Amino acid sequence: MAVKGMASGDRAEAVKVVAEGVAKRLGYSGLKSLQEEVVVSFVTGHDVFAILPTGYGKSLCYVCLPEVFYLLDSPPLPSIIIVVSPLTAIIEDQVNIVLMLLEVC
């Protein structure tokens, strides 16, 4: 299903349907609203800077993108996705909080 020639609203709807299917195939019940917004915006040609809370499922946003691109583009176009994740900082913060709580007890 090539989305390049579709009208903007039709493209967004096609991306939603394909992304939902990919999320379910990956073992999720579907996409949350902000995950869907990130994926649809990115695949329909917008630059995306998403800041979502810890545990919201940011990884699903970028994990499903290659397959969504593959399923929507015919032939598939080469795509580059750059993910910047502060995972080490999050882990350090969580460890520091636990250590602080242990000192209080």
Give an overview in words.
Helix content is 58%, strand content 0%. It has one domain. The chain is elongated. By secondary structure, the chain is an all-alpha fold. α1 crosses α2 (33-43) and α1 (8-25) packs across α4. The longest helix has 18 residues, at 8-25. The model has no long low-confidence stretch (mean pLDDT 80).
The end-to-end distance, rounded to whole angstroms, is 58 Å
Count of individual domains: 1
Cα-atom radius of gyration = 17 Å
Helix count, DSSP H or I runs of 4 or more residues: 5
Element-level helix/strand string: HHHHH
* Alpha-beta content class: mainly alpha
Main pleated-sheet profile: none
| Shape label | elongated
Number of strands: 0
Average of the residue pLDDT scores: 80
Q: Uncertain segments of ≥5 residues (pLDDT<50)?
A: none
Strand content: under 5%
Give the fraction of residues assigned to helices: 55-70%
Task: Write a compact overview of the structure shown.
With 105 residues, the chain is an all-alpha fold.
List the helices and strands and how they pair.
Blueprint: H1 8-25, H2 33-43, H3 58-63, H4 65-72, H5 87-104
Helix pairs in contact: 1-2, 1-4
List keywords for this structure.
single chain, 105 residues, mainly alpha, 5 helices, 58% helix
